[in-house]
Design goal:
With about 170 residues, the chain is of the alpha+beta class. It folds into 3 domains: about 5-40; about 65-95; about 95-165, no CATH class. The chain is built from 4 helices and 5 strands. The chain has helices spanning about 5-10, 15-50, 55-95, 155-165; strands spanning about 95-105, 115-120, 125-135, 140-145, 150. It has a 5-stranded antiparallel beta sheet, covered by helices on one side. A hairpin with a 4-residue loop joins strand 3 and strand 4 (about 140-145). The longest helix is centred in the middle third of the chain and has 38 residues, at about 55-95. The N and C termini lie far apart (about 100 Å).
Length: about 170
């Protein structure tokens, strides 16, 4: 008895199972092939739509233009960032804290026509402008503020305006 005959005799009792297994593998392979062909067809359709009426050179031109545009956007972004940094630096010295007090400087005057206005930057440096209205005229005074303190004497209303500006949250 040869080798093949001994293998045939050994496999004879399970040959039906082997045939069913081989058939199941063939069906699975057919299903996988159908799925792959469907996916390939969709991908080919998308590629055809993308490249419709174009050759490889025109697609290369399109990609180069996209890369150029991307570089322009990056340059503009860098410029915008630099401009924002410059604006933020300028804001440090801009008057951003404001305190206003209106008052009646002289008894007998109608309404609160006098005022004190305090303008401060982030470092609490700035000025207090006082406008005093009386019967003889209007007088304006300016006092310098350094680190939240007056360089000269302040009136009660000027102090209120300074206090109001110092309390502002940014």
């Amino acid at each position: 008895m040869g080798f093949l005959e001994s293998v045939n005799q050994a496999l004879a009792p399970i040959s039906g199972y082997l045939a069913i297994g081989a058939a199941l593998i063939a069906v699975a392979a057919a299903v996988i092939a159908i799925v792959m062909m469907t996916r390939y067809g969709r991908l080919k359709h998308r590629l055809d739509r993308f490249t419709e009426g174009r050759d490889a050179a025109s697609l290369e031109d399109i990609l180069l233009r996209v890369l150029e545009d991307n570089q322009k956007v990056k340059t503009q972004l860098k410029n915008n960032i630099n401009e924002i940094v410059r604006i933020n630096e300028n804001l440090l010295t801009a008057y951003r804290k404001i305190g206003i007090v209106k008052y009646n400087a002289f008894p007998g005057m109608a309404g609160k026509v006098s005022s004190s206005i305090c303008l401060l930057n982030n470092e609490n440096n700035g000025i207090v402008i006082s406008s005093v209205h009386g019967q003889e005229g209007c007088y304006t005074y300016i006092r310098e503020i350094m680190n939240g303190k007056s360089v000269g004497a302040l009136t009660k209303e000027d102090e209120e305006a300074l206090k109001s500006a110092l309390q502002m949250e940014l």
